[in-house]
Amino acid sequence: MSSKIMNSEFEITQNPVISQMSSMDHDQILFCSDNITGLKAIIAIHDTTLGPALGGTRMWSYNNELDALNDVLRLSRGMTYKNAISDLALGGGKAVIIGDSKTMKSEALFRRFGRFVDSLAGNYITAEDVGISPSDMVWVSKETNHVVGLPGKSGDPSPVTAFGTYMGIKACAKLRFGTDNLIDRKILVQGVGHVGEYLVSYLRKEGAQVFIADISDDTVRRVAQKYGAKGIALDEVYQLDMDIYAPCALGGTINDETLEQLKCGIVAGAANNQLGIEDRHGQDLLDKGILYAPDFAINAGGVINCFSEVKDLSSKWAMGKAEDIYHTIYDIVSRSEQEQIPSHVIAMKIAEEKINKGRKNIK
Ligand code: NAD
Predict the structure, then answer these.
(1) Catalytic residues, which ones?
(2) For residue 210, which of 7, 229, 357, 359 is within the disulfide window of CB 3.0 to 4.6 Å?
(3) Ligand 1: does its nearest atom lie under 6 Å from the Cβ of 284?
(4) Residues paired with 12 in a beta bridge
(5) What is the pLDDT along the chain (363 residues), one digit of tens a residue?
């Protein structure tokens, strides 16, 4: 049968949404539109084998709707892997609100979004992400109970994310240098915002030599002074001779250009989507002999914190669970070294094995 469907008004030669969904194995997508509030959003549920899909809501001025769709599909799949590899009884989901977070926010818009979240009856649990503040989520929570990370509940996930990242860095150090003691190690933290600053504090407490870079000069000055770190210029980042590079700002910093310059033994930081082109740049790191802690495994502290709220567990439990990231990263990276397979591929395999096991248990 031809894939071309004709009727009087439309000629459809392909169906990009369904084919994209099935190529990445998504369960469900909810397209949300409301003319009164101006809301345009997409909620993607990637997988719910291990539990309800949990992942934040991002508000961003996408160039077009296809970019927004691609982003939400990629991010929601990442949440499935992140939750599975961390042994959390959660699936993966994510939402994007299309629009300028500086000009388009209103209570009505977020409440309308909350009603869309509620229509999924707990299959999707939302939280904050880029462009969203706690007060936006309070508006969402007026319409649905399926929100975590609200003020007065589990709170800011960044300290837990930073602690898990610190543990992952130590595991990589053990594999690369034979000791996980970071004293005098030269470590560059790129981006000293919520997570980066807490990470700097852990690293300095242990006696590492910490270098920091941020687009905000004021932040660099403040953090450098507070913790005894050394600020460097943005264009020095990839030229610095360092033991460990910890990306804690934006994604995509491991790319063709930076890989030519990077002088480090380990890449381990909290930023999401660090590999510019996943397949190619993961392999390039392996070929260059640089250990890489897969982002979705090392930065799982934030979602661990959200899970503690879902299950009414203590912050002590969350920190204990984030400490386990040491063993998770150690296992992934040592397997990557032994099998000479990029670490992010190993991590995805482990996550898929856990999901498949969960699927069998359901049958
Ligand atoms: P944030 O916005 O608080 O901090 C980011 C910092 O990076 C800011 O200080 C910003 O000025 C700086 N920055 C931006 N572009 C830069 C550049 N080109 N060079 C250097 N610095 C730059 O964000 P955050 O909450 O600290 O998150 C940092 C990263 O970790 C993000 O990629 C985020 O997706 C990821 N992450 C965060 C959490 C969490 O709990 N907050 C959890 C998982 C993953």
Answers:
(1) 94
(2) 229
(3) no
(4) 5
(5) 333 334 334 444 456 788 888 888 899 999 999 999 999 999 999 999 999 999 999 999 999 999 899 889 989 999 999 999 999 999 999 999 999 999 999 999 999 999 999 999 999 999 988 889 889 999 999 999 999 988 888 888 899 999 999 999 999 999 999 999 999 999 999 999 999 999 999 999 999 999 999 999 999 999 999 999 999 999 999 999 999 999 999 889 999 999 999 999 999 999 988 999 988 999 999 999 999 999 999 999 999 999 999 999 999 999 999 999 999 999 999 999 999 999 999 999 999 999 999 887 765
d(CA 164, CA 186): 19
Domain boundaries for CATH 3.40.50.720 within the chain: 158-353
CATH class of 158-353: alpha beta
CA of 191 to the centre of ligand 1 (A): 6
Is the sign of the CA dihedral 258, 259, 262, 265 positive or negative?
positive
Tokens 């930023």 map to which residue? 271
Distance in angstroms (rounded) separating the CA atoms of residues 264 and 185: 11
Q: Is the CB of 272 under 6 A from ligand 1?
A: yes
Alpha-carbon distance 44 to 28, whole Å? Answer: 6
What stretch(es) of the chain map to CATH 3.40.50.10860? 3-80+90-141
Strand partners, 29: 44
Q: Assess contact for 219 and 230: CB atoms under 8 A.
A: no
Give yes or no for residue 249 CB within 6 A of ligand 1: yes
The CATH code that applies to domain 3-80+90-141 is: 3.40.50.10860
Phi–psi pair at 132, nearest 5 degrees: -120, 140
User: What 3-state DSSP class applies to 187?
Assistant: strand
Burial class (CB in 10 A: 0-12, 13-18, 19+), 244: buried
| Mutate which of 165, 212, 299, 325 for ligand 1 pocket (most atoms within 8 A of beta carbon) | 299
Beta bridge partners of 31: 42
Q: Which of 253, 254, 251, 203 is nearest to 230 (CA)?
A: 203
Spell 124-162 as b/e; 16+ CB within 10 A means b: bbbbbbebbeeebbebbbebbebbbbbeeebebbbbbbb
